[in-house]
């Protein structure tokens, strides 16, 4: 009975934890790193084909984005998540695969001209579709047995549609332990979705710390602030460009914009248009509408009962095709452009930045967390020039942040969540925060509240039954690697994983018919003869 910390340890993205419980192998989250990779992450200690379950806290790519890669490397277990998370992953993982393939195609056009080696995508659409077939939806607060000795329950974390804290009950060799993964803990009073639900009991807690060193402050009047920004920008003749996460933040912005539109708060520009330029965001919005009854909060439900869609209004334009997207910037009328990705690392937002960053009359408004190393973070920190599609763009637009808009709890919210336990857990593991934030939040928990708390680095292992460290790693900072070397390493790891899966399949066939086993052996030897060089 042990846990191994793999990803988002002293970092914010790439969440992944490995558990050995009752003879089965589990992952809690399997996320993609976004932005700068600061510390070296350990590989999963077993072959992907030996993972029995992936428990997924929510659909954001930094928690779910490597599940298709796991599938490509042989994973065929079960992915368990809430129903809305399954729905969102069905579009988000396919979108991620599309981005991987598109990037590979674009890079290979350049590589071919320059004589470079072919760039292989991290995973393909086929991998994403195959992985999605392994997903299994559960309801909030349903206690579900996964295997002998292991039960789980998903509680609403209030961070995103379908987001959850996960409670795991494990009993092995007479030892019983209750392990709680916070997932990403939501902010209070967000539009549309409910507030976080608090868990009352745990032996061990693994909790996030994204905003563990800061406070959101008094809740601002988002509608008033957004109206002021729009009025100033439109009066200059400019566009308001909002880099927005396609799932969650876009729907919240639509909620605010509907209020501005229907109450005619924007004097002189009452007929303003809003373009949602993200096929993913459009599909996600339909999933939000599908899950009204189980996930919307009382304020949103009051609108629904009046026959009002909380995230739709006259003047809302949905841009699906690439031609639709291109035409937005040919229209000179001031407008709001909502586009993904929220950190400006990929997607159509980069095209809108190319067309609007150099214009003094325009505004770029950030409405979510910007990880270290992302283009969004660079713009917020005052970058004077940026490179987009091989072109240097001078930053002349007004760069703003809508403070207080966050899907993450601040320090007060995190403390409210951990202090909701009726008795202090045996140990609290702090993860999912920037390096200094993890350390400062641990200090707060220990010195101010009396918790036994630590922030482990990737590769650290803890014996949950004995209550002691098996291995406590030091953080190893990464040096910048050339892209070609990184990709070569990724592809070799995929090959190695395929070999490990083959061994797993061989073991599963022990006791089979001699004729079939002999045929299987001949096929393997034939393959080895072809590639042994």
Please explain how this structure is put together.
The protein is an alpha/beta fold. It folds into three domains: 2-215 and 407-471, Metallo-beta-lactamase, Chain A (4-Layer Sandwich); 222-401, Rossmann fold; 483-531. It has helices at 61-64, 67-72, 83-114, 125-132, 222-235, 249-262, 279-290, 292-295, 298-305, 322-328, 349-356, 375-380, 411-418, 435-449, 483-508, 514-531; strands at 2-7, 16-21, 24-30, 53-55, 78-82, 135-138, 144-147, 150-156, 164-172, 175-181, 204-208, 240-243, 274-277, 316-318, 336-339, 363-366, 385-388, 391-394, 398-401, 427-431, 453-454, 461-463, 468-471. Strands 6-5-4-3-2-1-22-23 form an eight-stranded mixed beta sheet. Residues 481-488 have low confidence and may be disordered.
Shape: globular
In the CATH classification, which architecture of the largest domain applies?
4-Layer Sandwich
Name the poorly predicted regions.
481-488
Biggest sheet statistics:
8 strands, mixed
Separation, N- and C-terminal Cα atoms: 42 Å
Number of helices: 16
Query: At the fourth CATH level, what is the homologous superfamily of the largest domain?
Result: Ribonuclease Z/Hydroxyacylglutathione hydrolase-like
What topology, given as strand order, has the largest sheet? Answer: 6-5-4-3-2-1-22-23
Judged by helices, strands and strand pairing, the structural class is: alpha/beta
